[in-house]
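Side project, low priority. Logging it here so it doesn't get lost.
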Amino acid sequence: MHDIGFESHDHEACVVEALKTAETCCAERQAQLTPVRRRVLEILLQEHRAMGAYDILAQLAQEGLGSQPPVAYRALDFLEKQGLVHKIERLNAWLACSHAGSEHSPLFLICRECGAVAESAIPRIGLRKAAEDVGFLIETTVVEAEGLCPICQKAA
C-alpha cells in the first residue's frame, strides 16, 4: 500500500489489497492467519481508523467470534508482530498498517480535533546515521505527531 493520508481513495480496493498482502506475508513467514485474526484485521481495514481493543471485541462478539478480552488482544498481538497493524500509544488503539510487507518506520499523524489517524513512513537513513554517530543501534522507530487534519483545518 501507499501513504493514503487524509485523502479519499478507493476504499474497497484498499481493503482487498491489504488482505492479500496480509495473506502473502503470513504464508511467507509460515504464520497462521486464523479466522479471528483475519477478521480483526478486516475490521481495522474496513473502519480505516484507530480502534481500541474493546471496540474490536464488541464487533467480534456480535459475530459470535469471541467475547472475552484475550480474544481481541491475542489477535492484535499476532497482527502487530507480523507488521500488519500498529499500536498508536497516544490513543491506546490499533491501526491497520498501510505499508504491510515492507520494512518501514511509521509516522502517525493524529488529528487532535477529530481523532483521525494517517500513517506515513519516515526515511530510515537519517535516523540510522544519527544513531550510528553516537554508537546506538535502532531496532524500531515509531513517531506520533499530533495536529490538525485538512478537514479540521478548514473548519477552524
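Brief comment: The chain has a mean pLDDT of 89.
Revisit when time allows.
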